[in-house]
Amino acid sequence: MSISLSTHVLDTERGRPAEGVPVRLYLGDDLVASGQTDGDGRIGELAEELEPGSYRLVFRLPSLFFRVLELEVELESGHYHVPVLVSAYQCTTYRGS
Q1: What does R_g of the chain's alpha carbons equal in angstroms?
Q2: Are 7 and 84 spatial neighbours (Cβ–Cβ below 8 Å)?
Q3: Which of 1, 3, 18, 22 could form a disulfide with 11 if both were Cys (CB 3.0 to 4.6 A apart)?
Q4: CATH architecture assigned to 3-93
Q5: Higher-confidence residue: 17 or 89?
Q6: CA distance 63 to 47
Q7: Mean pLDDT, the chain, as a whole number?
Q8: Are 82 and 7 in contact (CB under 8 A)?
Q9: In percent, how much of the chain has pLDDT > 70?
C-alpha cells in the first residue's frame, strides 16, 4: 500500500504562489519529512512510501496574522494533495487531487 503526499501554498492577497514556505510532516512526535515550497508554491512530493496513520502537517505561513498552520490528516492509501490558500487575515485548505 503506497501513500504519498504533496502540497501547494498560494498567497491569495498578492495573487501569486508562496515561495519558500517551510513545511514539516510529523507522525506522532517524529519528523518524517520536511521541505520548502518552490517558485510555484509547491512541494511536489513532500513524502513518499508513508505508512497509514494520522499525520500532522505544519506550515510556517507568510501572513501577518496566521503565522503557523497545523493540520492533522488521516492517510490511508494512495496520493494526497493538500493545497493552502493564505492572505493577511484568511487561510483555507482542502484535499486536492
Answers
A1: 13
A2: yes
A3: 18
A4: Sandwich (2.60)
A5: 17
A6: 25
A7: 94
A8: yes
A9: 99
The cell numbers describing 16, all together, are: 501569486
Q: Please check whether residue 18 is in contact with residue 62, taking contact to mean a CB–CB distance below 8 angstroms.
A: yes
DSSP 24-67: EEEETTEEEEEEE--TTSEEEEEE-SPPSEEEEEEEE-S-SS--
List Cα–Cα distances, 15 to 39, 85, 86, 87, in angstroms. 13, 10, 10, 9
Q: How many CB atoms lie within 10 A of CB 71?
A: 13
What are the residues whose beta carbons fall under 8 Å from the beta carbon of 96, sequence distance 6 or more?
Answer: 8, 81, 82, 83
47 grid coordinates: 513524502
Average pLDDT on 56-70 reads 92
Is the whole model's pTM more than 0.85, yes or no? yes
